[in-house]
Amino acid sequence: MNKKIFTIVAIAAVVYMTACGGGSDAPATNTNKSNTSATEEPKSMVADPVSYDPKRGEGKYDETNVKVDGFDAAMATKGKAVAETKCFSCHKSSDEKLVGPGWAGVTKRRTPHWIMNFITNPDPMIDKDPEVQAQLELCLVRMPNQNLVETEARELVEYMRQNDGAK
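Below the sequence we write its predicted structure tokens.
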């Protein structure tokens, strides 16, 4: 019995020493890239910040092809169904953060075409938009591309408008 216990303790000690780097005589090096000096400025992910329009975003939608005249309740109902399927696992309709930010007030802060560009084309916008990058630092998770079609994106915008009080 003592032989079994001794063998288990010896194996555990070897595993512990190996896992903790106990067998290496090489000096430890700091491989943490986020450890920068106080004088070094963070680099923007935007290749050409002058060409990016933060009011429009990155994508095919703009004020000419996204028309928001009056509130469309039927479209908002369809948008809520899309949100329940593709969005609410990460977002809440309130201002409370889940995985991603809450949606309350988003249509007051962003234009409909910016929202449609972001929800249909998130990767380039995450890489270019300074405010989205700041949001990413808070949420720590990139928004995945849900492969929304144009009608789903427009319905989501209408649901977001309803959520923000459009009638």
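Confidence is low (pLDDT under 50) at residues 20-46.
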